[in-house]
Write a structure and sequence with these properties.
Elements: H1 3-23, H2 45-79, E1 83-94, H3 97-104, H4 106-124, E2 131-134, E3 138-143, H5 146-159, E4 175-186, E5 192-193, H6 195-204, E6 211-212, E7 228-231, H7 233-239, E8 246-252, E9 261-266
Parallel strand pairs: 4-7
Antiparallel strand pairs: 1-3, 1-4, 2-3, 4-5, 6-8, 7-9, 8-9
Helix pairs in contact: 1-2, 3-4, 4-5
Length: 272
């Protein structure tokens, strides 16, 4: 049975109920129990019609809302189906944002977040960024290639080397960043999801003491704690033929991921 058939059947039922109520004579209205002292007020035909009309209006309004919601949900699902893409993910986060707020005031901490967001977008737009999401103290961006993500990260960090004028008299901005490459899931609104994004956030915040010595692998002794851009192995492989300067940092575990992961660093100071 279609939605229209259901609606017609309910309309007929409501009209039949209204006619039945209106056809009852006043004397047929049930009397109050005998122990009640006062006689009930007489019920007029007009009040019966009013009650029936209120019931019909309420039922019709509820039905209309249900069918409208079902139709809108179906159209929305057809308009924006989910998809899968292969993209590079760049995540950037402000270092010591809480310390900025407690030692220099909430106003300076908010300015730092705004400066980072503006400069990240300015570095990403020329590289064809496909998606941007604010994460509070930073942002997550998607790019069509690992090279585009690496160029954006390098431009952003070079621009933050000198203290931005908006941050005076506060300290220079320091950030951590990470680039991963892989399969990204798109939901109906175009938002990005997937393990490549989760890995980027884990990689960005991995502490320097998390790297372990594995047989056959060399661990660097000078691993930076901030103003760095880490890359996963897939992103590093994509950059292998682009002559972008990178170096292997070491091997570590990432929370929520099994096994060991080889980590690389983007040598952004050497990029023109």
């Amino acid at each position: 049975m279609t939605d229209a058939s259901v609606l017609r059947a309910l309309l007929v039922a409501c009209l039949f109920c209204a006619q039945s109520v209106a056809a009852q004579p006043p004397g047929s209205v049930p009397q109050a129990p005998r122990f009640v002292m006062h006689q009930p007020a007489a019920v007029s035909d007009r009040s019966l019609f009013d009650d029936a009309s209120h019931v019909i209006v309420g039922v019709l309004g509820a039905l209309a809302g249900v069918f409208a919601h079902r139709g809108w949900s179906r159209r929305r699902w057809r308009r924006a189906p989910a998809g899968v893409v292969i993209e590079a993910v760049l995540v950037v986060d402000l270092v010591n944002s809480t310390w900025l707020a407690t030692h220099h005031g909430e106003d300076l901490a908010m300015r730092a977040r705004n400066v980072l967001e503006r400069r990240a977008l300015a570095a990403a737009n020329p590289q064809g960024v496909t998606f941007v999401e604010n994460t509070g103290d930073g942002c997550m961006m998607a790019f069509p290639s690992a090279l585009a993500a690496a160029n954006s990260a390098a431009k952003l960090l070079r621009g933050l080397q000198d203290r931005p004028p908006e941050m005076a008299p506060g300290p220079p901005l320091e950030v951590r960043a990470a680039v991963t490459y892989g399969q990204i899931l798109l939901d109906a609104r175009g938002s990005r999801h997937g393990s490549a994004i989760n890995e980027a956030f884990r990689l960005m915040n991995v502490p320097t003491d998390a790297f372990v010595v594995v047989q056959g692998e060399e661990r660097l002794s000078d691993i930076p704690d901030r103003n760095r851009v880490f890359l996963d192995e897939d992103a590093a492989n994509e950059l292998e033929s682009t002559h972008v300067p990178i170096r292997q940092v070491g091997v570590c575990r990432l929370k929520g991921f099994s096994g060991f992961h080889r980590v690389y660093e983007l040598r952004w100071k050497e990029m023109i």
